[in-house]
Each structure stands twice: as C-alpha cells, then as structure tokens.
Design goal:
4 copies of one chain form a homotetramer. Chain A has a 7-stranded parallel beta sheet, with helices on both faces. The first copy, chain A, has a 4-stranded mixed beta sheet with strand order 8-7-9-10. Chain A has 2 domains: 269 residues, 3-Layer(aba) Sandwich (Rossmann fold), CATH 3.40.50; 101 residues, 2-Layer Sandwich (Dihydrodipicolinate Reductase, domain 2), CATH 3.30.360. The first copy, chain A, is globular, with a radius of gyration of 20 Å. With 379 residues, chain A is α/β, with parallel strands linked by helices. Helix content of chain A is 43%, strand content 18%. In chain A, α1 crosses α11, α2 runs antiparallel to α3 and α4 crosses α6. Chain A is built from 12 helices and 11 strands. Chains C and D meet through α1, α8, β10, α11 and α12 of C and α1, α8, β10, α11 and α12 of D. Chains A, B, C, D: Belongs to the myo-inositol 1-phosphate synthase family. Chains A, B, C, D: This is Myo-inositol-1-phosphate synthase.
C-alpha cells in the first residue's frame, strides 16, 4: 500500500524530525522508540509500513531540509550521526516540496494546493495521500455563515478570505481525495462545511493538537484523581519554551487557542473545572526542550488538603514526530478501509480530540487498540 | 447486611481516621471524598452501607481513641469540629476494642484472637466480619516448611513461633470464618497454607499494602510511558515521612519489605526494570504529611533524552482511611456472594496486589467496575 | 522610648498578623521567630522594645480585628490559641483605628490624616510615630510636574488629585513629623517632592515592598551565580497566590508594578538581564500560603548547560509581619537619632530598595549590622 | 611565574575537563566562565596566568587523555569542537603523566612520588608546583598515633601502611616542596603530622572537597534562613549521580565520608542541626549531569509552617574544573608570597573547609576578596 505523507509546514521542526526519523528507522539506524504503532497491540498488516511511505509537502520557508536538520542537531534534538547518515535521502525529499502560491481568491489558492496534491499522488502512483498540518498555531478565526454549509463555503471562497490557512488546507485535501490530520490547535477541518466535504469525498480526518507533554500528563493524572474520588481544587500550569513554536505562542491570539486546547481535559475528565490557569511563556534560551511545571491542590477525606507538583522537561519535536508517523499510518489504513469523516478513535494522540470521547489516556488507548484489533480480526 | 469491621491496629492513625470518617460521613457531617465506592460505577446494593458497619478491633497500645483523634487534629490530619462531633460515638467504640493476649504457643494466641472475633460477631448479631490489618509493617519472615501446607502449619503452631503476627492474624480470621484484608506490606495471608485455610473456610481475602501516594502515581505514569513507547531509563524515588509509620519504616527490615512492594509496579508495567532506587527516610518533623519526590529519566525518538519530576505532599492517613472503608464494603459483599480465597479484583487498592493482575491503575479500575457491575446485573 | 506604630491598612492580613504577633511575643506567648532585630548582631538598646509600641491605624474596611484574626486562624496563618489569648488586647487596639475620611481636595484629606496622626501621638504621649503602609498594591501613577517639587505639590493638592493614596499618606506622615515605611510596591514616598518634604521635616523613610519569598531567594541565589562566574541564561518565575493580595495583583496594573519590583534584583546583581518573565496568578484556593516556582537555566565552563528549579511554599503574612515590627523599631531608632530622608541601610528588608545599594542579601545584612552596631558603639 | 599544576588523578573527569578548559581558554577558544579568579575583585598580578601553567600528573588508569576527553564529549560535558581544537596540546600533556609505582613500603612509594614531582619541576624550570588531589573519594582511615606526630609518622612509613593514598600524596608533595590542594573529601593533609610537615617545608595547603552543587546552595540558603531568623526544622537531600564518582560514592565507606562533608554547613551556619539526611544514590544513566533534590521545612512567626524545595541539575565536572584552575592560581600565589600551612582564606571553594571559618558563601567571598585585594595593595 504505497502511501503519501504530505506535510503542510514541511520545513518546521516537527516535520523534519519526522522525516529524519522515518528515514533512519527504515534504514535500521534507529529503533522506533516513541512510535506507538510499533507496540504489540497496535501492530497490524492493515497499516502501511514505514518503507511504503513517500514524502512531500508545502512550506513558505525555503530553508533546505538538511540545514534545518543540522540546526536540530545543534539544538540537541537530533543526533549528528543520524542526520549525516540520512542526508542524501533527505535531500531527495527536497524535490517533493513546494512553495504554496497565493491566488487572487481563496478558491484559486485551493486549486493550486489541490493540483500539487494530485500531481504528487500521480507522480508516485500512490494508493492514497495523508495531509498532515504541522504549521504554526493560528489565532481562532471569526465565525462566518459559510463555515456552516458547504454550498455557502464554495461560493464564498470565490470572493472572500473566509477560511484560515489550516481550514483552506483541509478543504484542498478533501477536494483532492486526501485524508487530513491536524496536529495543531488551529481550526483545521473543524467546521461543519468541511465535515460535509469530507463525507462527500469519502475521506477521513483526525485532530486536534498533538498531545506531547503537559496535557499528556493531565490525561493520566486527572483520571487518577477522579478514580480515587479526590477533589481537585486548583490546577495551575506554566509552560516555558523557545523555538519557533514558542515565539508564535507568545502572540496572544495563538496563545489563547493553545490554552483552550490544553484545559479541556480537566473539565471533561473531572466533571468540573478546578481553579487555576495554564500559561505559556516564550523563553528563547530553552529552545525545543520545553519545561512545564504544574501545581495541583486537592482535598481528600474529611477535607484534608494535599498537593502535588510535576516538572516535565520534554523535547517537543522528538515527542511529536513519531506520533505524526503513527497518525499517517493509522489514517491511511482507515481511508483504505473505506472510513470517512471524523476519526474519534484517534483521540489518544490529541489534546483536543474530535467527537464525544473520553479524555482519559487509558480509555483512549483501549479504544484505539480495539479499533485496530478489529481490523486484524477481519483481514 | 450487618457487617463487622475489625481493625488489627485499631488505635493507629489509619484506623482512627477510618473510624472518625465513617462516623462523620454516616452522620452527614462530611462528604465521602476519597471513598471510591461512592463513585457512580461502584455504587451497588450489593455493598453494605456505612450505616451497617459495626466497629471493633485489637491493639497493643492503650491510648484512648479520642486522645488519638485529638493528636491527629494537632497533626493537621483531622478537623477539630469533626472529632468533637463524633467524640461520643468514638468513645462507644472503645468498648469493642481488645488488647490481644499472648498465649504460651501461637496456637493458644490464635485461639484467643478467634474467640474475640466470634464474640464480636455474636454480640452484635453480625452477618459477617471483615478483619483489616492496619498494624505496622513487619520484616519479611524467614521461610519455613509449615508455610506451605495447612496440615504442617496446624501442627507447628503448637510448638513453634512459625508465623509473623500479620499471618497469625490471617490464620485466626479464617479460622473464625472472617474475611481478611491486608493494608500493609507484611506477609499477612500470602502463604500457601493460609490460602488453603481460606478456601477451606470459604472466606475471601485481599491485599497487599494500600496504594496511597508514590505508587499510585507510578501506576498511572508508568503505563503512560509504556503506551507511548517511551523508554524509561531510570526512576528514582525518595519518600520522607514522620509519624509512627515513618519511625517503623526507618528500621532496615521493614524498609526492605516496603521498598520491594513499591518497586513491583515498574517491572510489571514497563516489562523491564529501569535503573534507580526507592528510598524511605524518617523525618519526624514532616509527620503524617508525607513528601515523595521522584525523578524519571527517559528517552524518546532517535535517542532524545528527557526527564520528569514530581513531588507529592499527601496525608497518608487521610488517603488510606477511605480505602479501608471501601475494602471492607467490597470484601464483605464478596464474602456474602460466596467468594472465597484471593480477590485479585481489588488490585486497584494495592501496591503489591495478589495474583497475576495488571498494575495499571486504569486497567485495575475497569476490572473493579466490571466486577461490581456484574453483581448489579444479577441482583 | 514610647513609639507609635500606625498602620495604613490596619485590618489587612499583614497588619493583623503583626498586631497579634507583637501582643503575643510581648506576653511571652510566642518566640520572636522571624524578627531579625532579635538576632544577636542587631540587638541594640537604641531600638524601642516591643513593649514600648503603641498601635493605631487607618483602614477603609470595618471588619473588626478579632474577626479578621479568626479568619487568619481558619486560613492556617495564625494559631487559635494565640488569637484567643490576645483577643482582649486586640479589641483594645480597635479604639485606636480610624476610617480615613475623604475631603473635597487631597489637601483636605491630608489634613484629616495629619490630625489623626497628631492626635494619636499626643493622646499616648509618644516620643514618635512610625507610619507603615501595608495597604494593597496600587497601579503606577501617571507622571505629574508636581511630583518633582514640593512647592508645586503643595499648590496642586488644593485642586487636583495629584497623588496616589500611598503618596498622600507619606505626605501626611511627613507633615505630621512621623517617619514612614512603605512595605508595598506602591509609589509611596518615592517622589522628589516628598523626599524634599521628609528632609524639611527631619523625618526618615524606608521602602519599598517587603522581601518575603521569591525575591528573598533571588537575593541570595543571583549573587551565588555571580560569585561563581556562572552565566544565568534565563530566570522565569511563577507566583500562585490567593487571598486579598492575590485578587488585587490579578489586576493588570497592580501586577505590572509588582513584577517590576521583583525583577530588579537580577539586573542589579548579575549586571545583565537574563531572559524570562515573572508571573503572578490569582488562585483563590491557595489562599495566603503562596507558591512560587522558578526555573533558572545557566551555563558554566566551556558552555556546559545546567539548570535549577525551586519551589517556595511560604505564608506571606507570617513572613511579612515580623519584618514590619523590625522596620518600626529600626526606623524609630533612626528617627530618634536625628536621621532624615532615605534609609538605604534598610535595603535588607525590601524587594526594591531605595537608593544605590547592593541587592545581595548578604551585603545588605552586613550594612544593616554595621549600621546598628555603630549605634551601640556610640551609646 | 612558571607554575606546575600536578594532578593526582590526571585521567579522571574533573582533571581532563580542567586540562581541556585551560588549553581552550588560553587559546581564546572559550570564555573563562566559571573561573572566579577572572572576576574583577579577584583579578591580580599576584596570580600566575593560565598561560604560565605547565601540566603533569599521576594516574593508575592508562586511558589516554584524548580518549577520555572524547568520552566527556559523548557524555555532554565537553563540546566536540573544543576537544578537536586542543587535541594536539592535550596529547602533549600525555608525556608529563606518570603511573605511580607502589614500593615495598609507603616510604618507598612516597620517595618515588617525590622524585616524579622534583623531576617535573626541574625539567620545566618551574618556580613552583601545586599538587591537586582529584582522585576518587576514600573511606575515612582508622586513627593511628603516627597521624599526630611527624617524627612518629616518618618512622612508621618505613614499615606500616599508615597513611591512606591521599595523605601519602600530601606527604610527598610537602616533602618535595610543593603546595597541595585537596579537592575531595578524603583525609588528604588533614593530619597533625602533615600540618607539621607543611609548616616545616614552608608550603601552604588547602581543602577539602570542592563545593559545586547541593552544598553550594546550602551555603547561601542556610545563611538566608539564619539572617531572617527563620527556624529550619528539617533539611533532607537526595543526590542522584552516575559516572565514576557515582559508582565510587555508592560504596558505603566513601558515601559516609562525603555525606559528613556535606552536612557540616548546616550545623555551622544555623547553629543547630535540623532533622533530615543527605543521601547519595548511584544511577548510571544520569551520568555526570547530577541531580540533587532538597526539601527544607521551616517555621516562621507564631509557628507558621512553610517549606521550600530545590532541584539542581548540574554538571559536576564542568562546575569543578574551573575551580581547580582557580585554586592552583591562588595557592601558587600564596606559596610565592611565603605563606605556609593551612589556607583558610580559600574556604569559598570547599564543602568542608579547613580551619575555623564561616560557612556562609558571602562571608567566604568577602574574605577571599580581601585576601587577594591585600596582595594588590602591596605589590
């Protein structure tokens, strides 16, 4: 099953780490640590192999992939020996990257994106293409009637800038018959008009916002408090990060979108919203090795007051990249099995999952295992 | 269903917090925060109500319950208003406490324990009695052939000190037709001879070692690393605590038993044993408000190295006491439904659960919910 | 030396903790823990004794002192037994508290404040009165020409609201011949016109912003990095607090004033400003037991990168209150020895000290000890 | 002033980091970050320049210096570019390293050490040689009468193994007219007989145990609590480290020596000993990037209970190496100015300083600055 992995934001840290890692793992230069589809309960003949993936993508930056990879070596994200070893193959991927061109209307811009996707699929005789959004977090867009209806949207695109870039990308992907994964908190495919389009086109989509650090911890700790009937009084979090992601999230609008995405797990898991805030601060020196600190105050039997703190020092790109590969493999398999529309079964991967799903990591894991296990039973 | 709750170690911090809490909750003076049998998925007509519990117990100390409760107020564990409000009822429990007498042989000591249990059951016309061990942690006993066989044990008790106190207690409980819960890491009922006795007597038992702090966190964090295919390189823990429990655990032998109990979850959940140690240090000033600090180093995609730390400031007695009440209710229900021998379904509550069970808290929770849910279906 | 301690904000947490503590210590009900003037190098016959202090003050609130003290018992700041023991004396202080009245002009308001201060001094035949500002943090005021010149100020007060409350208070104190201590980050006496007034009136003043937690730590840790020639790359801080102080600091303007006060120590001690921010978040549940978390990244020999974190769980009122008593004793002594204008020798107590002084706690301590020691030599 | 720096343990991590760093800084490849003698108050013409240092040493290992440096690159301690750049010079140092030979008696072993030192001095026409002990921590030796008296010692060395290696080294250094710095907690020169020898030989010595992490923090935090009259109730510390130092300190005897060295600062600074222990645990995965976690509980005004925690992630070799260079420069200067015996003025550098000195870092800094400043005045 030849599968295209098309990255929107292909020259960013997460994308390049994914590419280097995929090339390294399939050359047996590294173990697939961090790839969950390599764990026993998720191994399946229904998934394309890493070796079956063909890479392409868009980016507005023109920084070459090898240069970007070397900057990730300097930042301590990638090992020099791996980047050296896969350098030639990485350069070969350059030929598959495109600079998106901006048309006179959003319709025209979309048409160009679609052409790039179709051309990629045909050039490589791919069975399917998964588009993954790993661009920077956008501000929340203003509401617009065209977001609610595919007919209105099609019309509006001709004359108005009605979609934020992530959503225009989803529009193009679905129109081209590609599935779509949103790894960011941007709006992406989360508009009724786009859901209609995905269903009409018979393609599935997944999102939102890869769960890699503080929220991952929340998704196991909040259920722990709930299962033990302990009352969480406050949960406050501080995230310090540098890098391009940090610079972008220092913008108030992007910050608001991200913070909303991060808080949802508490409300959904506990059934109430504890006091406290989640902050994101840009500290360039910290680079990609993000530090999150959370303080949780809670009360137990007879009102006894207790607290816990944690500090998480995680390399965001290294945590995200293997999940991108997992999502491509899983979404491709879903697509090839005829699923279309939302994939709530992939909630395990996301801070702000689509659909009415459990926010407990363990529940999400079980759902995922059963879903993939079901494919094996029917092969 | 009138149920006796017989506490071995009835004047200790956990026991007295349980008693005060049970009296307060059934008088509607406090919410049952921390009691998991009050959560929707575990509510069941099969469980005795708190109001149906009758309290009794043994202790070698003679400190009166109200005095002990007042010392727990001073230590910040119990609120003064609650202790004042239940003082009279707490004093009434005094009448049901016994000082265990030591016979010429362990057989004779056991006979006296049995007599106390039977008398308690008959005096209060109880349907059943659950014996809960909340005494101090014992050293691991030396192996002895009589531990393997009930016949040999019965013989040996006449002439040798062959059982540590916690096991002699289990022997007495089973002989009296009572179920038994071991809330400590002591050997308790974990001897083949005692398992034979429980089965013969038709009584169930559960254990070992209530999971209230650091290990509770391990039971959600270790599965998180496993589910994400992240490699845990080291996991080091330090536990600082005062109080009687701290003083006892400062003894090397008790410390060893406890530490072994605390480490098992990592090996079982991760499938390998990371580097690092768990330490317990006695710091009297810290009292019952235990502090645990853990450092976890792990590696992800392409060898990236990351770490997390947590600090847990938890009041051990307040965390343990509601679980004692839960265990009594659940064990009583199991007994009344005819179950005997090990209750691996109660793994959720224990650091070192009996049987071949998952050590993931989420898995244990599901098992528990399905078990109790099954009773409701058949009522 | 009979000394008046007049509290602006007399019904707030810091003020009431100071009052309860002063009453308790002089009744030998508590040790003067936290009072630095009780340490050997600062003991001096030049200082008024606690027993010589007479208490009074202003507050816009009318909550009675005993009620406020009881709320501090509930919050875990004050012990019930102490509050009970000093209840009568605390009630007696009520008679010395006044509600400030607001005149038609700031001149008229000041006149009333002056009258209250003079009446207090005469009524109790005090040798001197120290006014301490422990009101809530104000926003930074807009600049005004009258701030620069006492003549202009005197004129402006007749017709304009030219001074923020803390500065009007300093104006009144100096006009009444009282010394003034600003324990908050508000502007207080920090205006050239007020400095002119203090010098003209022959009274000393001290400030700003009592150093009780995070900044106290910075004032020993930043010098440590400097003395070891380690390069601090970033210093990020998060402060979580509830209580009235937290609610006020959640206001953006007050927050800005506070944060500016907290950051100065780094720039002054290191000689450069590291990356990173200091945040203050309001979390009502945390109450007065503030939690601060700081992350410091630094580099050493040959560029090696290292980090440290600290968490501080400190009770702000309990940390501040003894320093208020110290400042009153020291300022009174300075006044009685004829000093007037700024007291940079008291930098030890403040986040944002007046004058060109060292921001290293150890240097500040030495300056303080030498200053007080000098008095002893000349007695 | 040509100065020899002779390293006992020349192939260990600290030694090799010192060598690489000295070579890099004098070639202007790196800034002297971490070298305190480069700070304004300690710059002095009395100190030998880094360019004047000549390197030699002993080690029982035969691992070549470049190999060791490369392993420190792999461990993240040294940057590859620096090690590459100084590789040739580092190889040149190889020629000055000797394997110590073990004689039939300690007297004979010492004679050989002396011959190596004298030969080094003469071969390079050095004005003086400073011997620095950076070998592994030894267990505390048993007491022996010969430790008390130089005459007895001289006699005993002929027939008994009366000195541990670090002390035999000090004996040889003094006998050869070299000064001696003990950077470890071993006994070193801390025996009356050796003090007599140093005075007789007219050479100075300094020690013990470089202060690089947890104890450095204690030496600023403990004075902070003392200056604020806050009562430290408990101070518990956990040190997790790998590397050769960690493996050695996991031995109970070495551990005991180290821990004793680490605790002294609290007793000396606070005037009493708080509860709590300092632990050292060997976690190979953590390598040279040591993690220390400390919990401090303290009480303030009216008994309010508070706590602070810190975590220190420091690279021990990188923190120690520049101090080794500082100590060599300062000890050489002291020697050349005619000082002999103990150098308590160097307490700033040590966990367990020689002599009756302050354990506050700020006090130690002032003493050091005044000492070096005094040399400048008299030049």
């Amino acid at each position: 099953m030849r599968t295209g992995m098309w990255l929107a934001g292909a020259r960013g840290s997460v994308a390049v780490t994914s590419l280097v890692g995929a090339l390294a793992v399939r050359a047996c230069l590294a173990e697939p640590v961090g790839c969950v589809t390599e764990l026993a309960p998720l191994r399946s003949p229904a998934l394309p192999n890493l070796a079956d993936l063909v890479f392409g993508g868009h980016d507005i930056s023109e920084l070459c992939l090898v240069k970007k990879a070397q900057s990730l070596v300097a930042a301590g994200v990638l090992p020099a020996s791996i980047v050296d070893a896969v350098g030639d193959e990485l350069s070969a991927v350059e030929a598959e990257l495109r600079t998106p061109s901006r048309g006179h209307s959003q319709e025209e811009t979309a048409r160009q994106l679609i052409a790039d996707l179709v051309s990629f699929r045909e050039r490589h005789e791919l069975d399917q293409v998964v588009v993954v959004n790993v661009t920077s977090t956008e501000p929340m867009p203003a509401a617009h009637p065209a977001h609610q209806d595919l007919g209105l949207l099609t019309e509006a695109l001709k004359s108005e800038d009605v979609l934020p870039p992530s959503a225009l990308y989803a529009y193009a992907a679905f129109s081209a018959g590609c599935s779509y994964v949103d790894f960011t908190p941007s709006v992406g495919a989360r508009l009724p008009a786009l859901d209609q389009l995905a269903l009409a086109a018979g393609v599935p989509y997944a999102g939102h916002d890869g769960k890699t650090g503080e929220t991952l911890l929340k998704s196991v700790l909040a259920p722990m408090f709930a299962m033990r009937n302990l009352h969480v009084r406050s949960w406050s979090g501080t995230n310090l990060l540098g890098g391009g992601d940090g610079a972008n999230l220092a913008q108030p609008e992007a910050n608001a979108a991200k913070v909303a995405s991060k808080q949802r797990v508490l409300r959904e898991t506990l059934g109430y919203e504890p006091e406290g805030h989640t902050r994101i601060d840009y500290v360039p020196d910290i680079g990609d090795l993000k530090t999150a600190w959370d303080l949780i105050t809670f009360s137990g039997f007879l009102g006894s007051r207790m607290r816990m703190e944690f500090t998480w020092h995680g390399c965001d790109s290294a945590l995200a990249a293997p999940l991108v590969l997992d999502l491509v493999r899983l979404t491709a398999a879903a697509h090839s099995r005829g699923l279309s529309g939302r994939l709530p079964q992939l909630a395990f991967f996301f801070k702000d999952p689509i659909g009415e799903v459990s926010h407990s990591l363990a529940d999400q894991w079980r759902v995922l295992c059963e879903w993939v296990g079901g494919w094996n039973d029917t092969e």
